[in-house]
Specification:
about 110 residues, mainly alpha, 4 helices, about 0% strand, elongated
Amino acid sequence: MPVYQKLVRDYIPEIIENTGKAYSTRILNTEEYVDSLKKKLYEEVDEIREAENTNEVLEELADALELIHALAKVHDADISDVEEIRQKKASERGGFDKKIFLEEVED
């Protein structure tokens, strides 16, 4: 039996069960959960980097966004709180639309 040792989406056990395969799961404590969410977000970022077309990028962005929602929730916030902070930073520092690449700054 393959060993995964990773956080999975809520319906994955049911999906596996419907295939007739055996599996084992456990419920993480809060510290393990937060750590696993962060690790999973790194996985998704790597998958975004490896995506070869727009559809793949959008699929991976959706997965990353799901993790961001979960991380906000575990910190007693929601995506609107994250969006408010994003908008404030964008108004103060800008976004990334101009494609500016900083090469160096004089000391």
